[in-house]
Every structure is written in structure tokens, then in C-alpha cells.
Amino acid sequence: PFKKRSKKVVCLRQILFIVTVVALSVVASYQFFIFHVGFGGSHAEVNLVDSFLVSAVRDPNASATPRSRDASASETPQSNTSQKESPWDDEEIDPDLEEERCRRYGFSYDRARTTRRRIFWGCMVADDSWLLLRAIAAEARGVYHTAAFVESDATHRGDPRTLRFPPGSEEWRRLTQDPDLFGPNTRVSVDLYANDLPASVQFHFMHRQYLHRQVVLERWKKNGMRPDDIGILSDADEMFSRDFLRAAQICDVPEFRPGQDCKSAKILAAGLVFESSPECVVDRFVLWQPSMVIGECVEPIGDNRLHRPPKRMVGNGTQSWRAPGHGGHPGNSYDIYLNGTGIKSSDGRQMYPLWNAADF
């Protein structure tokens, strides 16, 4: 019976197919996730892009030069030359508004608090579109203390790649010196990861990604991150909404209170995954990214005398994933760590390891 379709019906279906493909392509091109943030099993919705693409303003207080994992990037303070005003008016703390915002996410608000927590953000960067980079900068304009990018001269699988943001290049200036991005006080930098691992070293490609990301944590430390600051690691196509970032800065968040044992220090975002190509079909439609961790539990920032380092899978047991029995897979058990490495606080609570980039 299907052989007797009229030409008009076939033509109409072809037109509908083309229109559908075009519409899906437009939607997919924005590469946005819609996040839900979970706390203790409950989920509070975070509206993602209620904002619009704006001309954000920043004063680059840091510029990066090439470096490997264990080298330092120099900084050259710059003056703010932009005269553009911020489209946001949420910097001033209004107790009534802050209390309402905190309540939206299940937090309480201490009216005696007069300052916001600082946020240190970081991600890897490669061939991400400028539309995407400007979108994540606009959403967080004036919120981040530090925006730390890291670029590698090799892919996660170890294949050589040409640097897009070498210091002094037009792309580097556009990302770190352009006054239309992260805000007048945000320190933006691009640190370079030199792939110095010998070819004989064979391991899961994700290990190399984690070594790339570890450079971000080193930048946070160099920029003065403190135990009471917030760290966010993400990909360039992931972000918390501005409203939730402001809530994290001011609300009474249990994971951000002083004296953490660091066992469950991470705040997760549940990002919905949208398929935009038949070559990118997924079997899971939720990814738990990006992540927030308080500086007290971040590896270069927290007290490693209280939170003893666990054994890890790379670099003579010092880098990448935690080893089995030290909080790693399978089972995330701490049996070995607690029997030989972990210690207790002065009030008798068991302390757990600090979080590195792989743990994020």
C-alpha cells in the first residue's frame, strides 16, 4: 500500500524533513545545557540562559606565557580601558533579595554576612566557538575572580595539535585582553600544557585530560585562592546560571561551611544532553557537570597535613584518579586509605583526601 503515495504527499514529507533538520541545526548550534543542581537527593532547578549575549567588560590582570605542568606562567597587570557599563545590577547585596534567592535553592541566608565568596573558574580550551565563549563569559560577567583556561599542544589521545592561543597571538589577545568578556575585575589567563609524557607511557586517555585540568588548579593557587573561595571546573559548553552563582556566593551552603571533612565536598549539576547529530548518539541523557568545590577541599589550597594525599593512578601514585581503596573505583572505598593514611580531626572526625582535577 505504501507504493501508492501521491507525489504531493512525498514532496510535502521531504519539505517537512528539510525544515525539521534546519530547525534542529539552529537549536543545536547554541550548545547549551540546562542544569539542575542537586543537594542531598533533592533537585532545585537552575535556569540557564535567561540572559542575553552582552558586551561584557573585563580588565585583564593576568596574561599567560607558555608553561608545562610544573612551570609558572608570568603575569603582566593591565589597565582597564573599557568605558562600557555592566548590564547586570546584582553586585550590591540586598538582604531581602538574597534571602529569596537562597530559598529558591533550599539554602538559608545569614543576614550578618556582608561579603560574597569569591569564585575561581576554569576549563580547557581548544577549538570552541567564539559564540560559545562569549556566552559563558556574559552569563558570569563580573562574578568570577579568576577565569583560568588551559590549552594543550596535544589532544587527550596524545595526537599533536597546533596551539590556537599562543601568547601574543590575535586569538590570545581576544580571549585575555578583550574588554568585552568576563568583567573589569576578572583575571583571565590561558596557561599552556606541554605534552612531555614519553611515548612509552600508555594509560587511559582521560588521565591526560586530568593532567591538563590540574594546571587550572595551579593557576587558582597562583592567583591567591583561599580555603573559603569556591572552585568550579567545567567544559566550555557547561555553566551554572548566574542566579545560582550568586546564591553560591552568599547563601549558607552546607558544603561550604568551614571545617569540612572533604569526603563529599562536591556540588553537582545535572546537565541534560541533547543529540545534535546521528554521529553523536548517547545512551545517557544526564551528565553530572560542572562541579563546585570549596577551596578548603581543593588539593593545592587545603591543608594536606589534615587531609592526607591518597594513592593515585599516575605519576608514581600522585596524579589523576584515586586508586582502589583510596576513594577510587571500584566502589569508591577508603579501606586502605583509612587503615594507613587517613587521620582524624581534633574533634574526632575522620578526614578524607583533598580534591584534584580528576576528583572534580
TrEMBL record:
UniProt feature, compositional bias: Polar residues: 73-85
Alphabetical keyword list: Membrane, Transmembrane, Transmembrane helix
Signal peptide start and end residues: none
Region feature Disordered, mapped onto this chain: 63-93
Species per Swiss-Prot/TrEMBL record: Pseudictyota dubia
Protein name, as recorded: Hexosyltransferase
InterPro entries found in the cross-reference section: Glyco_trans_17 (IPR006813)
Gene Ontology terms for molecular function: beta-1,4-mannosylglycoprotein 4-beta-N-acetylglucosaminyltransferase activity
One GO cellular component, as annotated: membrane
